[in-house]
Each structure stands twice: as C-alpha cells, then as structure tokens.
Protein: Membrane protein
Organism: Streptomyces daqingensis
Amino acid sequence: MTPLDKPAADGTGRRTGADPASDSGTQPDGAAAPRAVTEAALFEAFGGVRGLVETTVPGLVFITMFTINKDIHAAALTALALSAVLGVFRLIRRDTVKHAFSGVFGVAFGVIFAMMTGDAKAFYLPGMLYTLGLALAYIITAAAGVPLLGLVLGPVFKENLSWRKRNPGRKKAYTKASYAWGFILLGKCAILFPMYFAGADATRFGWVTVALKIPPFLLAVYLTWIFLAKAPAPINVIAEMEAEEQAEQEREQQKKKLDAIGEGLADDAARALLAESERTQEPGGGQQPGRHRR
C-alpha cells in the first residue's frame, strides 16, 4: 500500500496521506505522496507510456519499411494507417481526445511532406519544426515569468494559475522545468537539423530521429518530476471555489431562514396589534365611565 492509499492523522485531525492538492499550499508530511501525485499528473498530461509509444511507433514503422523496400509511398501510408488505428483505439477506450488526434495529425503532415518532396527525410521535418517551436516556447515563456509548463500542468493539478502569485515555490519549479524542456529539445534540434540540411542518408537520418525520440522526452519528464516533487504542494483552487460556493449557498439558506423568522415575528406582532385594536373598539371593551352622583 502506498502513502496515497494509507492516510494517517498528524495529530491535528488532518489526513497526511491525502492528495496534497486538496491542502491549500501546505506540504504533506511524507515526500512520497506529492511525488506520487506529481508522477500521475505528468503521465496524464503527456499521455503516459501509450502516448510515448503512439508518437514513436509510426516513425519507426516508416523508417523500417523504407529501409527494406525504399518505397516512400508504401512506408508513409502504412505509418499513417497505423497512427489512425491507434487514434481510433484511444477513442474507443474514451481516452483523452488530444492524445488520440495529435499523433495522427503529426504523421499526416509527415506523409504529405514526404510525398510532395519525394525525400524520405521530409517525413520527419514537420516534427522537427514542431520540436524547435516548442523549445523556443518553453524558453521564452520561462524567461517572461509565465512558464509554459505551468500553463499546461496547472489545470492537471487543479491549481490553474494560482502558482503565479500565491505559490512562488511552484512558479520557480515550473520555470526550472520549462527551461529544462526547452534546452533539451534545443539539443535534439542541434543534432537533427544539421544532419537534415547536410544531406544525410535518409535511412540513417530516420534511425537517428527515432533513436532521439524517447531518451530526451524521458529526461525532461524526469527533471520535471524532480523539480515539482520538491516544490510546495499545489493550491487546489477548484476545491476553494467549491467551498466558497457551498459557503455562499449556506449563507443564502441562513438568510432565508432569518427572513422567514422575521416575517413570522412581524405577522405575530401585527396580529397582536389588530386583536388589541378590536378589543378597545368593542362595547364595554374600554374603561367603564364613572357613575354620576345625584
């Protein structure tokens, strides 16, 4: 049983094994709990092992078939068909739509580039351009104080943008992680782009591209996990909004009760005044006049 499965009291009545995201800005006692939550969130954000496979296998199939028969069209269409099958399988399992379609679109652009140019290396060019743009986005947003990784993972941790002003420790961690992603991806581009424009053999270039698919990704995810696991726990703004909404509903209900009580008291007072007025108007209801002396 993991620390997430076995909550324990810390002497204040709070469960220390609970999700740290449910504790607004307070770091849990054990280090294993936030690390486990961070790991789960990263897998959710980046598609997990299946997402890694879906972005790697089509390119691997393409370069394998091209190495065997040197037929760009057959290799490209096979890779596209495989990517589509993987996407449909995700939809059948009702997984995240973005992971289902991102791989298909990426492979489709690669197929278009390869068929239009007649160069097998062009199959990987859209992915290379996307990697370069993503690397620059990570670095620029981190330098601007709004790290891209925080924008991506904030909703996953249910903290949204609370890390910007309310949780500086997490902002620092997101900034470090964004720089890590940016420079790792730039390093990958520094290898692939010179090979591509130097006219490297398509087969060799394809295998190098596939080989550089997983290791940089795993390194970036690992560094992100390290930075965030050591950072303060996320502030669960979703729970805060739900609590505020519940408190507002309770206040409304209390106000309605007080209004009902006030209306009841007002009605009782009005009825008492009306009864008193009726008694004073009845014959003999007022003060008896004194008898006249003869």
Notes: Confidence is low (pLDDT under 50) at residues 1-31, 290-294. Residues 167 and 203 are 48 Å apart (CA to CA). Residues 31-233 form one domain.
